[in-house]
Specification:
The strands form three sheets. Strands 2-9-8-7-6-3-4-5 form an eight-stranded mixed β-sheet, with helices on both faces. A three-stranded antiparallel β-sheet has the order 10-13-12. It is globular and about 60 Å long. The protein is an alpha/beta fold. The protein has two domains: 166 residues, Aspartate Aminotransferase, domain 1, CATH 3.90.1150.10; 236 residues, Aspartate Aminotransferase, domain 2, CATH 3.40.640.10. The structure holds 4'-deoxy-4'-aminopyridoxal-5'-phosphate and glutamine (GLN).
Length: 457
Amino acid sequence: MRERLPAPAPAEGASGQRDEAAPAAAGDLPPSATGTRRSPYLASRLQGLGTTIFAEMSALAAATGSVNLGQGFPDTDGPEAVSEAAVRAIREGRNQYPPGGGEPELRRAVAEHRMRFYGQSFDPGTEVLVTAGATEAVTASILALCETGDEVVLLEPFYDSYPAAVALAGARPRLVPFRPPRWQLDLDALGDAVNPRTRVVVVNSPHNPTGRVLDRTELSAIAELCVRHDLLAITDEVYEHLVHEGQHLPLASFPGMAERTLTISSAGKTFSFTGWKVGWACGPAPLVAAVRTVAQYLTYVNAAPFQPAVAAGLGLPGSFFAGVAASLRERRDRLCSGLEAEGFALVPPQAGYFVLAGLPGWAEAGEPGRPGGSGDAARFCRELPGRVGVVAIPASAFCERRADLAGFVRFAFCKRPEVLDLALERLAGLRAPLAAPGPTSPMAPSGSGPSTPGLAS
Ligand code: PMP
Ligand code: GLN
């Protein structure tokens, strides 16, 4: 598959800086998503939100001809049975607005899928809602459930849309850290994060960007906390089928959780069609009704011909789902061992298609933010395209202020093996000292830097 090149966007750097002029509400927003200037028309609760790191880094990859191991999207298409089902649906004229909650056949397929893989029971009529990707499901859920001033617990590092959704809702994030190097959840901090203003806990497992699959102990702790404090839970399970080690356990299957959890997933990762943006939220009818109220005014509906195609995908045999993970596992091992050979420090991810790797020398030095040194992953990622023609994303894009993550970089391995090999070959060029000037300026204009036609998008 030839990739579509993203439109060039201003490349301002891998990690924007906090907007000093922003009001307190923006103070909790991630540095990754913050602009450096106050935006004159943007509502005050959204000040500090800039271009997403993913758009920014993909544009940088295109502009510099770099191998793009930044934004998480596969460089091959998903199953032909699924894309053919979409083509058929278009030809059959399924091109007008689908029903508000989603095509009944997709809602049925989602419910059957949850039963088949997890033994969870959802009524497709009232307990399943089709959304424009998991992103809309999460955002609509937070908007639907939170009053202004409510607090939302997020696990940090977090997927970048979560704090933005919290800001849209006029709520406030409370962060609970995953701790390197093994990325266990800090359960003491979890307990401390809850207070009378807490409304929702957002749980992402399997987790982006750490690749952790939360284990039974961690999930039980979250469940007990939710039950004890009468909190709602939103779980983002988009990597549910990309599990390499361990087992994905849905939070909603823990005692007391089914009645208070919105379970969210999407077709993007499982079927390698990230651009289709078909997602869903499942949960008790009153919770789903609240989310539907918001979603109908955000998008109303989406992706008419893709909905029956995703329904077909969800019905594929178990061998398909096992195969997705198996093929990724090989690429995970390929990239991880290559990165280790180049001196990066990492624990292979249990799931997903990202690895968080400590910069060479970072683990030993243990010096957050050593000026110009190995602890500055944001600078490293800004310079990387110009130095060797590779794009990656600093962990700082997924957190607020975490000195202990300052030396970590996220690499995506959902790419063809030859693309991963090329990236590794180029990364070998890093053995030259970090501070040495690269072949081009880190923010080189379009067309300069190492050129790899067809790889940069
Ligand atoms: N949640 C997580 C954790 C993600 O990594 C992503 C990226 N695909 C999304 C949600 C977005 O999913 P979708 O494209 O279905 O909106
Ligand atoms: N989920 C993808 C990632 O983490 C990116 C999706 C997006 O660009 N919003 O890289």
